[in-house]
């Protein structure tokens, strides 16, 4: 029996609701598929922890996570705690502390769902966005001076390193090469941002030589939004900076139906540290506690985690079960339906249970 030891951080808002759903689905799946076992340990870190202890996680938080095979994460954010504290105190502390330099965001239109784009059919939108996850605009470089005075300044400096750009570019080209269309779009803003972004373009050209069978093109990020909306089928694998891909991937999720279905993986491809898996949505205060959060993002996230752990067959079965449920019309309100989190969870568990192995 293969054992995978998973650290679970449900976090804030709807995080605990969707993670509870995801765990129920994952445990049911492990029983059904057999051959592996998930050993779960939960960590109550987040905004409530911050209000009690003055920090989002304990000082030795990273050390306590270090030996796990993966981290399954809900969301952070509290209406009464500043967003930069919740984000930097937990999620970014883990991503950067464990050098999870790839943020992978697959997006496609699941069975039974439709895009808000009038003419976009299921097969027209099947993308993987590769987000640089360790530097760029979220490098944390900058500062404030002369606080409160008219002279006050705030700087927010983006950092691009040759090493950082090269490794994300290699990852993206390799991923594009593994996908059937072997098609990569490199996103920048190298007209207006003429230093780091121009280096990004140059490194793309260099790395492309290692992957002669991959077709690639360049897009400026503003034009990219119109291409995603206007010609979705012209895209396949996409690589962009930390900030640009953050924004593009929310757009991608909305174009595929809802923010509530989209998953993401924060990967350390070298496996020096545990990787972290999370739905891309946040704490969603407006629906917290109502029992209507869409748990599909958390389930799809679970499938990404299983793939990373080498359980490819189980990951495939999980997505088949999820798509049987979305196809059957059991949808939460964000997808225009009336189902609750519980009902969708139960339906996915049933679909797993009744599937032929
Ligand atoms: P959000 O993702 O929490 O919510 C945006 C909208 O999408 C809301 O209307 C919400 O109800 C809806 N939504 C999100 N997930 C859903 C789901 N599973 N099912 C149904 N509807 C869903 O983004 P926001 O409102 O900008 O941020 C709220 C808080 O979450 C902030 O504190 C923010 O900092 C934090 N946040 C955290 C993360 C993270 O933990 N990775 C990501 C984004 C935002
Ligand atoms: Mn985001």
Walkthrough of the structure:
By secondary structure, the chain is an alpha/beta fold. It has 2 domains: 1-101 and 264-357, Isopropylmalate Dehydrogenase; 115-256, Isopropylmalate Dehydrogenase (3-Layer(aba) Sandwich), CATH 3.40.718. Helices cover 40% and strands 22% of the residues. It contains 11 helices and 12 strands. The strands form 2 sheets. A 10-stranded mixed sheet has the order 2-1-3-12-11-4-5-10-8-9, with helices on both faces. It has a two-stranded antiparallel sheet with strand order 6-7. Strand 8 (183-188), helix 6 (196-208) and strand 9 form a beta-alpha-beta unit. Helix 1 crosses helix 10 (312-327) and helix 10 crosses helix 11. The radius of gyration is 20 Å and the shape is globular. The relative contact order is 0.17. The model has no long low-confidence stretch (mean pLDDT 97). The chain binds nicotinamide-adenine-dinucleotide and manganese (II) ion (MN).
